[in-house]
Amino acid sequence: MSMRERLQSALKDAMKAREAARLSTLRLINAAIKDRDIASRGEGGAETVSDAEITAILAKMIKQRQESARAYEEGGRLELAEKELGEIKVIQEFLPRQLSEAEVAAAIEAAIAETGAASIRDVGKVMAALKSQYAGQMDFGAVGAKVKNRFG
User: Fold this and answer.
1) If exposure means fewest CB atoms within 10 Å of the residue's CB, which of 24, 36, 60, 116 is most exposed?
2) Number of folded domains in the chain?
């Protein structure tokens, strides 16, 4: 089942169950995907975006909500922070399983070996290799720091 089919099925289930918060989040996901479809067509690309691109969209949405939740917590708006965290949980259902620390370390070593990275200047190559293989499965902000520490 493709990512789009899973999202449509979840959307229908949320409508039937009258889960307003879940339905709202699923509609936001669909809107973001449709925006990317339209942008892709404008650039002469495919009619619809791939599952890998949908995974990237979902990862970006999670990152945005984490930042918003942090800002709301700092501002004392806990009810809004909880809403953002609830949206994160719904979005995460459609992402692949997150890699463990050991799996991330092994992936970094494999990417370094694969790219032939030898210095801090090669961090970009390593990150590109990781992003192509593990989209949505790791926090690339944290991984970037680990890769830099490996050379630094």
Assistant:
1) 116
2) 2
Flag residues of the chain having pLDDT under 50: none
The parent domain of residue 133 ranges over 101-151
Domain-ending residue, one of 46, 75, 92: 92
Per-residue pLDDT, 144: 86
Cα separation values, 127 from 20, 31, 41, 46, 116, Å: 38, 29, 28, 26, 13
Nearest to 63 by CA among 29, 88, 31, 33: 88
d(CA 61, CA 92): 10
pLDDT at 86 (0 to 100): 95
Q: Give the separation between CA 123 and CA 117, rounded to whole angstroms.
A: 7
Q: What is the CATH number of the domain that holds 114?
A: 1.10.10
pLDDT score, position 51:
83
